[in-house]
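Board notes (copied after class):
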Amino acid sequence: MTQNVTIYVMSDSIGATAMSLAQAVTVQFPKTKFNIKRFPFITTLSILKGTLSRANREHAFVIHTFIKKELTDYTNSFCQEHALHHYDGVGNLLTELQAQTNEEPLRKPGINHETDKNYFKRIEAIEFAVTYDDGKDPSGFLKADIVLLGVSRTSKTPLSLYLANLGYKVANLPLVPHVQIPKEIFEIDKNKIFGLTNDPEILNDIRKQRMIAYGLNPDTQYSNLGNIESELDSANKLYQKIGCLVINVAHKSIEETATLILESLPNDNED
């Protein structure tokens, strides 16, 4: 029987560290359904008390990464008092490093984002990915670090955003039957281009499910297996013409596909 667990992810900054911890660990428990609720920018005791009261009513597991000592101490005390399971993702580490270095920590939330140029690089890359998603502006292909090509439902957009979050400027182009390929695609380094494909049967199921989600008939030209095979064949011929790397995303997670792409990039694009 599947059990449900609610997790409160709490931070006095954006909460990315706590969220990453929660997501990395919960996938190890496939028989449990986790409801992760994120509460960033908790900067005062009054907001914290209200949030913890909610967590207590829901018997939630609390993961927190507070930098301010008063917020850390209050959360730990509250959870102990109310028998709430909790994990302090920062406080113990700060204490240990303070003992090791004999230096008082600044305890300033979000300071890593203020000083880390990679943070701003990621923001710029995400804005780039949104601007040049789905081939909306072909000029983006000439400016991109990575160009993704693929027929509909080959994970182009989520993959673009995942790579953008790693700091790479990504543009993608949907390959639509009988629509001309922008000339810019043939003007860039083929090693920056990655052709995405999928197994016809899997793509057929994905497209049918998408139609059902829209409340439409699942059996359409869009989801027709013969049409899908024709689209994939046309895409593969384009990939051969370009000479780019082809990746079959069937049975691959976004992370796995992204790793293959990053391992194949020219050295001048790697950090």
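Comment from the instructor: The chain has a mean pLDDT of 91. Residues 102 and 192 are 47 Å apart (CA to CA).
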